[in-house]
Specification:
Blueprint (H helix, E strand, L loop, with lengths): L1 E5 L3 H13 L3 E6 L3 E7 L7 H6 L3 E5 L19 E3 L2 E3 L5 E5 L6 H13 L4 E3 L17 H14 L2 E5 L6 H7 L2 E4 L7 H7 L6 E4 L6 H13 L5 E5 L17 H8 L4 E3 L1 H5 L2 H14 L3 E5 L17 H17 L5
Parallel strand pairs: 7-8, 7-14, 8-9, 9-10, 10-11, 11-12, 12-13
Antiparallel strand pairs: 1-3, 1-4, 2-3, 5-6
Helix pairs in contact: 3-4, 6-7, 10-11
The structure holds phosphoenolpyruvate (PEP) and manganese (II) ion.
């Protein structure tokens, strides 16, 4: 970290140097005519930037390292590959998570589970608890949905993932599923992040609809700092001025995430577009850009879906998507 001082007297320089030393870092003072620069050598995350900025004579404080230490590539250059019952997320093979937006009934989920498995999906998705904008909209079928997910796993052999919305649900959801999903609306629910950080199962973390990349990675850091290093990031797009697209995926963000973090990054073409006709092209683009996989909504009868019907692929369309991303994956040296 670099601390720039203006008109600083000897006392201030000494005070700051002592604060740096107290945290186990080494200060290097370089005096110029108008400015004095103090370089703090060591783990700068131990220093309180806001406090340093508040000291008299401090003009600016420039951190050198990313504030997300555990999630950062700086300290962990190799890619993290997360294993879910034999399926790898973050390896050469792309991880395709597919299934309905919401578990509606046993018949509905089992039928879709067989269809997505047949088309090559690696993991089954399905929400039992739904974060809805309106309290009057369908809220999910709760624990019953988790039981149905477990049944679908037994029947198809697919691993299962679902959303956990509240700290009070973590224990129960962990008993049933292989991956816990934190939805966009909960990306900065810090108590929930800490709670899933204590679980010994992978967490699929979606970015908030107005979050910056740094905030997203700091959310991952919350989970990892509690001990759970199995975090899968999901780029699900952000709010923009374009009302024809639900939450567009920022071009370049997946690659930037892959540069900044060693964690696997997947893309959600369903919630980002909100439009079935755009899912295949957005998926092709995501894979071309370097995503480690996709989470995509599939429903046998989207027009009858209780939630997000407009953005769910039919099983036939999903099979087409798989065939198309296979070609893109092959072109960049990855497999589906
Ligand atoms: C979901 O994946 O079911 C979902 C609600 O997505 P998001 O949290 O990204 O809106
Ligand atoms: Mn949905």
């Amino acid at each position: 970290m670099i601390i720039v001082l203006k008109d600083a007297d000897k006392k201030t320089i000494e005070l700051i140097s002592k604060e740096i030393e107290a945290k186990g870092l080494t200060p290097h003072v370089s005096k110029g005519k108008e400015r004095t620069i103090i370089g703090a050598i060591g783990d700068e995350r131990l220093l309180d930037i806001e406090h340093l900025k508040s000291l008299p004579g401090v003009e600016k404080v420039v951190p050198i390292l990313a504030p997300y230490k555990l999630a950062s590539r700086e300290f962990h250059p190799e890619d993290t590959v997360i294993k879910v019952n034999g399926v790898e997320v973050g390896g050469e093979q792309l991880a395709i998570i597919a299934g309905p937006c919401t578990v509606e009934s046993e018949e509905q989920l089992i039928e879709i589970a067989h269809a997505v498995k047949e088309a090559g999906a690696s993991i089954l998705r399905g929400s039992a608890f739904k974060p809805r904008t309106s309290p009057y909209s369908f809220q999910g079928i709760g624990e019953e949905g988790l039981k149905i997910l477990r049944k679908a796993k037994q029947e198809t052999g697919l691993s299962i993932e679902t959303e956990v919305m509240d700290t009070r649900q973590v224990e129960m959801v962990t008993k049933y599923v292989d991956i816990l999903r934190i939805g966009a609306r909960n990306m900065q629910n810090f108590d929930l992040l800490k709670e899933v950080g204590k679980v010994n199962k992978p967490v699929l973390l979606k970015n908030g609809i107005a979050s910056t990349m740094k905030e997203f990675l700091m959310a991952a850091e919350y989970i990892m700092s509690e001990g759970n290093k199995q975090v899968i990031l999901c780029n699900r797009g952000v709010r923009s001025y374009e009302s024809e697209l639900r939450f567009p995926i920022l071009s370049g963000l997946t690659s930037l995430l892959k540069q900044k973090t060693h964690l696997p990054v997947i893309v959600d073409p369903s919630h980002s577009t909100g439009n079935r006709s755009l899912i295949i092209p957005v998926s092709r683009a995501a894979i071309a850009e370097g995503a480690d996989g996709l989470i995509v909504e599939v429903h046998s009868c989207p027009e009858k879906a209780l939630c997000d019907g407009a953005q769910q692929l039919t099983p036939q369309e999903f099979a087409k998507m798989m065939a198309e991303i296979k070609r893109v994956a092959a072109a960049i040296g990855r497999k589906v």
